[in-house]
Design goal:
This protein is of the alpha+beta class and 556 residues long. Among the domains are: 2-128, Butyryl-CoA Dehydrogenase, subunit A, domain 3 (Up-down Bundle), CATH 1.20.140; 169-268, Acyl-CoA dehydrogenase/oxidase, N-terminal domain (Butyryl-Coa Dehydrogenase, subunit A, domain 1), CATH 1.10.540; 273-402, Butyryl-CoA Dehydrogenase, subunit A, domain 2 (Beta Barrel), CATH 2.40.110. 57% of the residues lie in helices and 12% in strands. It is built from 18 helices and twelve strands. It has helices at 2-32, 41-46, 48-69, 76-103, 109-115, 118-128, 130-143, 154-180, 187-195, 218-231, 233-237, 241-253, 256-268, 400-436, 448-476, 481-506, 516-524, 534-550; strands at 34-35, 38-39, 273-276, 292-296, 299-310, 317-323, 335-341, 349-353, 359-364, 375-386, 438-439, 442-443. The chain has a five-stranded antiparallel sheet, with no helix packed on it. Helix 4 (76-103) packs across helix 7 and helix 6 (118-128) packs across helix 7 (130-143). The longest helix has 37 residues, at 400-436. The N and C termini lie far apart (55 Å). The mean pLDDT is 92.
Length: 556
């Protein structure tokens, strides 16, 4: 164990050198994408591949740095797993940086030198060599999966224990039935969760929620989300997302009367919430949204379509992004948010007609996973919404994009917690199956390749979990906007890979619907699509921010 501990400073030094090369690659790409001291839209589009690789490399590097920062005080197994991920990240990030530098005709010699250095070769053998991974896998199997420890306060530790028990005893027994029969999340799950306050995690106590009045409490949200997602992403872990996004939007732009009216009700889970942003022709391109709001006496008439509106049937309140200014050249500055009230429906389709003739209809979209909440196509036909339901009132018109983004940052962080929950479930399932399943006369867990796979899966999970909690603390302190996007990008891609490897370890049984790991796999696939599609998040948020920061400051 002491030998592995002694490698931590060496690994840190390698990451330090890699960070310098990453900064140099960022500056080189920024220069290639700029004119007159600012980023050029055309050049950015021409360098989309390099920008995408930069975003991924930045996420992986930040995760590796975060893991090593907390490595010295970790358990012997967590130290090994942290070093395992860090070394995997060095190789992956180096490969991406070489591609970026070569693409912009910059010198990649420094990265080549790092990869060929004696220090890195020795570290790779000590951490990623066959014998080292085999020992890490053995230790993992003996641990029973108790890994990736994150220091928690007594309150957070108690909540984690409580919600893991709820997930195990209440959610898990229903999860397979909900998934296989495409059922709506039943009241027998919703009501206990209402009583436990899960819908008010992002709402300050003064408005009936459980969050402190003077600050955000993202760590509690991460703890609860991760625990529930381990049992089921769609039937439990994702229930928190929609009220969180709507609550943050209300807190950012709502009038005091709107906050007093809606936040206490949202905190109670009455009504349940849905978020209607995406349209058939516009997904992540929010500026292009077309659902039209037309002024009428006392309010607005909504006409148009939305799609991928999760939980729209069951929800009694929809947060709808509406184009209230018909001038399309205004882009996102012509958008507002309206709160649409409707009855709650349990089925896969609904039709709600107003007394004045307005209509809202919806149809669930069949999906390969993420079943239980259902995502709907929605059609608005002159649906009346009163002025009182425009977030921010008259002053909020045209500010819907900003209010939406205030909600989405928390949603991205929460999505990383959902990814961590699925990864933990998949890892534990793979470990259990590997110990029980015999192949060629021996348990799968007795084979070196299985142990190496499990070691790398656990290392990736540890990195995601450590980064999620670290970013949660940053956001609670008032920062972390960029990091929230990075951890979403990183954790969601990781969940796809970890669940894929878990399914592979199960072999044919992993492909059977009766095996939970098949559900983890198809559920994990959606994570890189919603709350900001991976490509848009990487290009428009992460890479653009990194490149802007790398440009020389222009004189005032």
């Amino acid at each position: 164990m002491s030998e592995m501990t002694s490698l931590i400073p060496q690994a840190g030094a390698v990451l330090g050198r890699l960070r310098l090369h990453a900064d140099a690659a960022t500056r080189a790409l920024a220069q290639s994408c700029s004119t007159c001291g600012g980023l050029d839209a055309l050049r950015l589009d021409q360098e989309q591949l390099a920008s995408y690789e930069l975003a991924l490399a930045s996420a992986e590097l930040l995760a590796a740095e975060t893991v090593l920062e907390n490595c010295s005080d970790a358990s012997p197994l967590d130290r090994r797993l942290g070093l395992t991920y860090a070394m995997d990240a060095v190789l992956s990030v180096s490969d991406k940086l070489q591609g970026i530098l070569l693409n912009v005709d910059a010198d990649a010699g420094g990265v080549h030198e790092l990869l060929g250095s004696a220090d890195l070769k020795a570290l790779r053998k000590a951490v990623l060599g066959g014998r080292a991974l085999d020992e890490t896998g053995r230790m993992l199997l003996e641990s029973g999966g108790e890994i990736a420890h994150v220091p928690l306060s007594d309150e957070l530790a108690m909540a984690q224990q409580q919600f893991r028990r709820v997930a195990r005893e209440m959610v898990a027994p229903l999860a397979e039935k909900i998934h296989r029969h495409d059922l709506t999340v039943p009241e027998e799950l919703l009501q206990p969760l209402r009583e436990m306050g899960v819908f008010g995690l992002s709402i300050p106590e003064r408005f009936g929620g459980t969050a402190p009045d003077d600050r955000e409490d993202n760590l509690m949200m991460i703890v609860v989300t991760e625990a529930l997602s381990e049992a089921s992403l769609a039937a439990a872990g994702s229930l928190i997302t929609r009220p969180e996004i709507l609550s943050r939007a209300l807190l950012a732009g709502g009038t005091e009367e709107q906050k007093q009216t809606w936040l206490p009700r949202i905190a109670l889970g009455e009504p349940l919430c849905g978020i209607a942003i995406t349209e058939p022709d516009y997904g992540s391109d929010v500026a292009g949204l077309q659902l039209r709001g037309t002024r009428t006496a006392g309010g607005w008439l909504l006409s148009g379509a939305k799609t991928w509106c999760t939980f729209a049937g069951k929800a009694g309140l929809l947060m709808v992004v509406v184009r209230t200014n018909p001038d399309k050249t205004l882009g996102y500055k012509g958008l507002s948010i309206m709160l649409v009230e409707k009855p709650s429906y349990d089925g896969h389709q609904f039709s709600h007609e107003q007394a004045g003739g307005g209509r809202l209809s919806g149809r669930a979209i069949p999906t390969i996973g993420y079943r239980g909440m259902h995502s709907f196509d929605l059609a608005f036909e002159n649906l009346f919404v009163p002025d009182a339901n425009v977030i921010g009132g008259e002053a909020g018109l045209g500010k819907g994009f900003y209010f939406t983004m205030a909600g989405m940052m928390g949603g991205r962080l929460q999505t990383s917690a959902r990814a961590c929950g699925i990864m933990r479930a998949a890892l534990l399932a793979a470990m259990a199956y590997a110990a029980d399943r015999k192949v060629f006369g021996a348990p799968l867990a007795d084979y070196a390749l299985t142990r190496a796979k499990l070691a790398r899966m656990a290392a990736r999970f540890l990195a995601c979990r450590r980064l999620s909690y670290a970013v949660g603390r940053l956001v609670d302190g008032g920062g972390g906007r960029m990091e929230a996007s990075l951890v979403k990008l990183f954790a969601c891609r990781s969940a796809e890979w970890v669940t894929r490897e878990a399914l592979q370890i199960h072999g044919g049984m992993g492909y059977a619907e009766e095996t939970p790991v098949s559900r983890y796999f198809v559920d994990a696939r959606v994570l890189s699509i919603f709350e900001g599609a991976e490509e848009t998040l990487a290009l428009k948020v992460v890479a653009r921010s990194l490149l802007e920061a790398a440009l020389p400051a222009r004189a005032a």
